[in-house]
Amino acid sequence: xxxxxxxxxxxxxxxxxxxxxxxxxxxxxxxxxxxxxxxxxxxxxxxxxxxxxxxxxxxxxxxxxxxxxxxxxxxxxxxxxxxxxxxxxxxxxxxxxxxxxxxxxxxxxxxxxxxxxxxxxxxxxxxxxxxxxxxxxxxxxxxxxxxxxxxxxxxxxxxxxxxxxxxxxxxxxxxxxxxxxxxxxxxxxxxxxxxxxxxxxxxxxxxxxxxxxxxxxxxxxxxxxxxxxxxxxxxxxxxxxxxxxxxxxxxxxxxxxxxxxxxxxxxxxxxxxxxxxxxxxxxxxxxxxxxxxxxxxxxxxxxxxxxxxxxxxxxxxxxxxxxxxxxxxxxxxxxxxxxxxxxxxxxxxxxxxxxxxxxxxxxxxxxxxxxxxxxxxxxxxxxxxxxxxxxxxxxxxxxxxxxxxxxxxxxxxxxxxxxxxxxxxxxxxxxxxxxxx
Length: 437
Ligand SMILES: Nc1nc2c(ncn2[C@@H]2O[C@H](COP(=O)(O)OP(=O)(O)OP(=O)(O)O)[C@@H](O)[C@H]2O)c(=O)[nH]1
Ligand SMILES: [Mg+2]
Prior knowledge:
Layout: E1 10-13, E2 22-28, H1 32-39, E3 40-42, E4 56-63, E5 66-76, E6 87-93, H2 96-108, E7 112-114, H3 116-125, H4 131-141, H5 146-156, H6 159-178, H7 186-213, E8 216-222, H8 228-236, E9 254-260, E10 263-269, H9 279-293, E11 297-303, H10 310-329, E12 335-341, H11 351-358, E13 363-364, H12 373-381, H13 398-413, H14 418-433
This protein binds guanosine-5'-triphosphate (GTP) and magnesium ion.
């Protein structure tokens, strides 16, 4: 790619707006140093164009004769900075009024207002980072667990990008060996194998990467009174949901974010499904069906202390339809985990029917006594390899997944002509640099 520096100077507040020790504004662009010169009175420096990279400069932000704040500036000149432009970081006192006053002053001197993501866009434009790194940055900031942060920091530091550069290198080497021959020779076959292996390895990481970014929804489903809310409370470790011996207690649904083995999930407690004349309960059941529609995993609960009845059968029917609809969508793996609750009470339930209807072994729990839950947690994270090695490339966006799936399909079908190799290179480049290729 050609380097083309933006001609705009932008300013972004990069710390949250609120009370704090420090509030930071970043000014980035060709006029950053001159703009800062106009509003900064340094104790030991007159002209910031003479500033040294990475050195801190103490002074005041001024508007005419008025001091606005006492600040410390950090200067990073073009080439050395995150954005690839001249950058002035203004470290003000934290606090909405002060920070906004300094920010408005910078803007009144000609800087364009931007968000912190705008700085990343400038860095991308100047080839300081690639599209994958730009995608990783906001996700790193929003990371819900330590593992998310670890994986995304690795991708921001280039783990996935390096792998794609290796794939690009392989296609270039294929160019040298296969030239224009329609029949691939032995070396080309080896390269193709290597490429297929690398892309398969990347695609296998996608469910894990995507689940870190957009947590899977676990919906707790069952007829009234089977212990859904009791299970929700046991998982959350607090008495958040009302639990009662009367069926039909939960009317609204409730959802919370949880972490199991450092994988984030959204867990949803729902109103029990049954036939009812009650209008409000009918509305609640409609909501339960909506939640089921967006579920990635379902914890289907049955009551150990009662024989299977027509209401349980309705649940089994709803699960069958859900599974069929999900298989049709084929977006993510969908799992039903049948739970037999209240195992502290004498068994009345024939679990064989449930096992054969859901085609899965059942799990025995007592939500009230918090027993049997560990096995359920293991099952929930079972599809992910939570044993993460530092620096592993991980696919974490739909865009990356879509492009790499396309590359994989090409490897299956294409006779390795020059055009096919070029098409593959385009896909890897697009993955790295966005749609401009
Ligand atoms: N013995 C025993 N009782 C349980 C267990 N889990 C739940 N219960 C009891 O079952 C009753 C219903 O529990 P809830 O958690 O409110 O059931 P629910 O499925 O949320 O019910 P709805 O909101 O009405 O659909 C309560 O009296 C709970 O104390 C369990 O593991 N063992
Ligand atoms: Mg409930």
